[in-house]
């Protein structure tokens, strides 16, 4: 089983685009760092055949394009895979992922160059997050809150304003409930433990830019590779949240330059620099590079 891969998204803002709205493909690709052409929830079932034709004939850059197929247990899945065989698109999001076998079968169908983003959004998928992270074909884990809560017979992944008003200061409107917090952490840890990237979930309240900014900043600080979004207007907020401050960039660059002149631990700015601090500086430099 693989324990490391070099796949990283080309930037922190990844935008969903409905596969049955091909007139939006180019705009989505232009606005975001990467685009997800969605054949599953974002595509009406009766439009999927036409949507597959639209993907097969589009000229988007395969390096900046992910295709979300339908889950393996859905009839449309086989048709999705057949369509992808005739294209150059090999970054594939597998929804409701729950086993390494599903990943292996997907890679076998599309070839060894297939890069699978496993979408963990069911109770079983959460319990098998580490198995999915270990799978050779998986390059990243992405978690989803709403399908997960539905699978628990729940109704909402976040606290409402009314609930927050009952206990002021203890919970905040829009913040995740405990199961979602656990899942986010568990999926992120599973990905990191096996050298895979992790993508943070969508923020559904598109009018709440401050809430998105806070959640994306938290994701960046924790080491998520990107935040997935559902509206072009969310892209600038995510990019800004992931961009380190000028002070952080300057600190990281000076530390990394100093590290080239030293071996082992050394003193920098009154701190002893060892491997963890060095990796933090590398992470800041990477985020600065992809956020401009």
TrEMBL record:
Organism per entry: Corynebacterium amycolatum
Q: Which coenzyme or cofactor does it need?
A: Mg(2+)
Keywords (alphabetical) are: Lyase, Magnesium, Metal-binding
GO MF term set: lyase activity; magnesium ion binding
Domain called HpcH/HpaI aldolase/citrate lyase: residue spans? 14-232
What name is this protein filed under?
CoA ester lyase
Superkingdom to which the source organism belongs: Bacteria
| GO biological process terms held by the UniProt record | oxaloacetate metabolic process
- InterPro entries tied to this protein: Aldolase/citrate-lyase_domain (IPR005000), Citrate_lyase_beta/mcl1/mcl2 (IPR011206), Pyrv/PenolPyrv_kinase-like_dom (IPR015813), Pyrv_kinase-like_dom_sf (IPR040442)
């Amino acid at each position: 089983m693989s324990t490391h891969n070099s796949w990283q998204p080309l930037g922190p803002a990844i935008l969903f685009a409905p596969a049955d709205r091909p007139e939006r493909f180019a705009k989505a690709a232009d606005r975001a760092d990467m685009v997800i052409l969605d054949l599953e929830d974002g595509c009406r079932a009766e439009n999927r055949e036409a949507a597959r034709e639209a993907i097969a004939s589009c000229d988007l850059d395969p390096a900046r394009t992910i295709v979300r197929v339908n889950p393996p247990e859905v009839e449309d899945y086989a048709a999705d895979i057949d369509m992808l065989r005739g294209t150059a698109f090999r970054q594939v999001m597998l929804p409701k992922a729950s086993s390494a076998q599903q990943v292996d079968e997907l890679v076998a169908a599309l070839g060894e160059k297939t890069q699978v983003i496993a979408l963990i959004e069911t109770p079983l998928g959460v319990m098998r997050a580490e198995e999915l992270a270990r799978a050779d074909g998986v390059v990243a884990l992405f978690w989803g809150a709403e399908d997960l809560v539905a699978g628990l017979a729940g109704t909402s992944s976040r606290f409402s304003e009314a609930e927050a008003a009952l206990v002021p200061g203890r919970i905040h409107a829009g913040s995740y409930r405990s199961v979602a917090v656990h899942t986010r952490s568990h999926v992120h840890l599973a990905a990191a433990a096996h050298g895979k990237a992790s993508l943070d979930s969508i923020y559904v309240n598109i009018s709440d830019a401050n809430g998105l900014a806070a959640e994306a900043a938290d994701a960046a600080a924790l080491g998520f590779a990107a935040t997935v979004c559902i509206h072009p207007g969310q892209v600038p907020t995510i990019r800004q949240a992931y961009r380190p401050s000028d002070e952080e960039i300057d600190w990281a660059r000076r530390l990394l330059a100093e590290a080239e002149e030293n071996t082992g631990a050394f003193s920098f700015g009154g701190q002893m620099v060892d491997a963890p601090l060095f990796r933090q500086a590398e992470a800041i430099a990477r985020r600065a590079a992809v956020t401009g």
